[in-house]
Here is the input.
Amino acid sequence: MRFQDAARDGRAVVYAGIQADPLVARAADLLADAGQGERIMARAVMNGETTDPGTWMAMFPTLFGPDRVGSGRARSEAVLAAALEVAERGEAVRSQFRGAIVEELTARMLARRVGRGAVRRERRILFDGVRAEIHPYDVTVERDGAPEAYDCKWGARGISDDVLHQLDDARGHADDEGEALRTSLVVFDAMRSCDVRLSRSSAPTDGTRIVALETLDTLAAP
Amino acid sequence: MTQETGGTVDAAIDRALRAYEALAELGEGVEDEWSYVQDLADAWRSRLEAVAATRADEPLDPTADAAVDAAIGEIGQIDDPHRAIDWLSTFPQVMLLALGERP
Here is the structure.
């Protein structure tokens, strides 16, 4: 098996511009260091209606209450500010920003474990005698003997049979070539919601790890 | 708009579940996701009802009570069924955090 850069069509070029937006990197940096409460807040704000910070601060008293001071409070405020910037981009664009942020967050978490050089974006995986898949993987870890492939979703609703089949097929093809490819689906949503979505799927899931909001930090864990 | 404040955990969850019901009805507008909306709402409703049953008339901190009302106000503004489906997952998580529970 081997990794390869995905060919860029017009849509990919546009999306690459969003991926390169400094706001994506800033939000991913903040969310990589955030706690679960801050990640839930970011999820709410980035898909919220109001852009008034006071409303959100009232909604999350555990993050902005009077007892919350110092660096923790500052981090929560920074997460809120970045999430509001995403929300203010407008409906058409912010869904793309959200997706790009989840991907970048995944890449940054993985880099803490394997080093930045091993983490790649938008890569296809080619197997001998197997027709190449159309869609690239959002994030890959490319190391001899320990390859990994990740797809990333903003919400549980994004979990589809297609993506589960693609991950499972890749793992199976790698196994046929004697490679242990670790496949995961990162979902910026609660595991409970993921479980509901998965319970409705007929696609194979045994070999694919689901990484939800509660377990994001495991991406960086040895 | 006047928002009622019950001051107890089960009263707050009762208000939240009524708002959640309206959110689920909005999400049902996406026909392809109708049964997913039902399952998703059932799963989270059960979680919130379990908290209400356990903590019942436990007094709720005023800031938590206000947080519940802020979240209810937020989902009350949603008019897009696709966004409603996303919030069927988000809203209960916000509720549980406000109530000091693990989402």
Notes: Chain A has a mean pLDDT of 95. Chain A touches chain B at residues 36-37, 40-41, 43-44, 47-50, 55-56, 58-62, 65, 154-157, 189-190, 192-193, 195-197, 199-200, 213-214 (CB under 8 Å). The beta strands of chain A are 2-5, 119-126, 137-141, 148-153, 182-187, 208-211.
